[in-house]
């Protein structure tokens, strides 16, 4: 499996798995445009704006770990569709939201479903993908996050002209892509690695033969150590150190980004890009985010995971720092710095899906991805909630400097702890150094912190 050629099955699985990140980017970004109409119509305070903007992130925090635990317990395939059905139902219900509390609850539920999809889809993709393509395909899921975000800003700008109910159509519009993804995912097989770990070897071998050909057998999975590891092992020994790094690096990567997306037009307005120009500017910056992820995907196997994450944090943090120091620079300079941030941060974005899936064994892979995603969303939700208050209290300059500081913290912890997993088979990357005979130095950085 680790050395198999890339097939049409792998490409389709990667495309279908990217549906969750697409919806995440869409849902989290469309609220930034919708808030232009929601705020006056529902008479929202700064605090209420922050809560509604952060509601989906809070939901992701709740849903990601639960979804990870469920997918490790009951399998990847079962939950692969159920979570998207929940998104469809709640997205439709948003159209009739009549008050801030109802809207907050619905977006909380949508966030829970989106969060659950992260560990489900990424674990399934990681466990099917050959080592040579694992990094680019897992990282490619993040590209779809930005495709979803860019789509949301274009759709939002169009629907703003639909009258006072434009925001309702914006929030309900996620129903269409979610329905398409549900239909495409139908018939996806269960992970043979998960089946083998549960003792269901006949089912695992049947799927292996169907995907990889009649020569494939359950022996192709024998290199992986099948140990009795439960979720508490994540927090012990070397896995505790790995989880600490993943949580810190992921949090530092998403806090500035999600804050920018939830209140992108408002931030750009504060930087003297007003009205429709702010929405279009946000869409253009999203394209730059997308470009940055594509560039990072092309370089992740050449540069290695460790080098990429460090450089991405350092130079993107510098771009935010310059925005904070020169908040009243000409609009061309502002857009250039935002574009630089968007392109350079692509390295940390793609590694959000690569690192967690590579550093933990099959038994707890879903739970580990879910836990890391949940912890990162705590910081992202707090950061998103504080954006309106920060803009009021600190101004745009102080807000951007705070975002830069978070990015530079990510750079520091990556210098200290980031491992290197390039060219490793999945079971090799997931094993602790002491189990493979490696020294901590050979592994890139200590497995325990």
TrEMBL record:
<feature type="transmembrane region" description="Helical">
    <location>
        <begin position="308"/>
        <end position="326"/>
    </location>
</feature>
<feature type="transmembrane region" description="Helical">
    <location>
        <begin position="283"/>
        <end position="301"/>
    </location>
</feature>
<dbReference type="InterPro" id="IPR005829">
    <property type="entry name" value="Sugar_transporter_CS"/>
</dbReference>
<feature type="transmembrane region" description="Helical">
    <location>
        <begin position="104"/>
        <end position="125"/>
    </location>
</feature>
<feature type="transmembrane region" description="Helical">
    <location>
        <begin position="167"/>
        <end position="184"/>
    </location>
</feature>
<feature type="domain" description="Major facilitator superfamily (MFS) profile">
    <location>
        <begin position="13"/>
        <end position="422"/>
    </location>
</feature>
<keyword id="KW-0472">Membrane</keyword>
<feature type="transmembrane region" description="Helical">
    <location>
        <begin position="332"/>
        <end position="355"/>
    </location>
</feature>
<feature type="transmembrane region" description="Helical">
    <location>
        <begin position="394"/>
        <end position="418"/>
    </location>
</feature>
<dbReference type="InterPro" id="IPR020846">
    <property type="entry name" value="MFS_dom"/>
</dbReference>
<dbReference type="Pfam" id="PF00083">
    <property type="entry name" value="Sugar_tr"/>
</dbReference>
<keyword id="KW-0812">Transmembrane</keyword>
<feature type="transmembrane region" description="Helical">
    <location>
        <begin position="78"/>
        <end position="98"/>
    </location>
</feature>
<dbReference type="InterPro" id="IPR005828">
    <property type="entry name" value="MFS_sugar_transport-like"/>
</dbReference>
<dbReference type="InterPro" id="IPR036259">
    <property type="entry name" value="MFS_trans_sf"/>
</dbReference>
<dbReference type="GO" id="GO:0022857">
    <property type="term" value="F:transmembrane transporter activity"/>
</dbReference>
<keyword id="KW-1133">Transmembrane helix</keyword>
<feature type="transmembrane region" description="Helical">
    <location>
        <begin position="367"/>
        <end position="388"/>
    </location>
</feature>
<feature type="transmembrane region" description="Helical">
    <location>
        <begin position="21"/>
        <end position="39"/>
    </location>
</feature>
<keyword id="KW-0813">Transport</keyword>
<protein>
    <submittedName>
        <fullName>Putative metabolite transport protein YaaU</fullName>
    </submittedName>
</protein>
<feature type="transmembrane region" description="Helical">
    <location>
        <begin position="51"/>
        <end position="71"/>
    </location>
</feature>
<feature type="transmembrane region" description="Helical">
    <location>
        <begin position="137"/>
        <end position="155"/>
    </location>
</feature>
<dbReference type="GO" id="GO:0005886">
    <property type="term" value="C:plasma membrane"/>
</dbReference>
<feature type="transmembrane region" description="Helical">
    <location>
        <begin position="243"/>
        <end position="263"/>
    </location>
</feature>
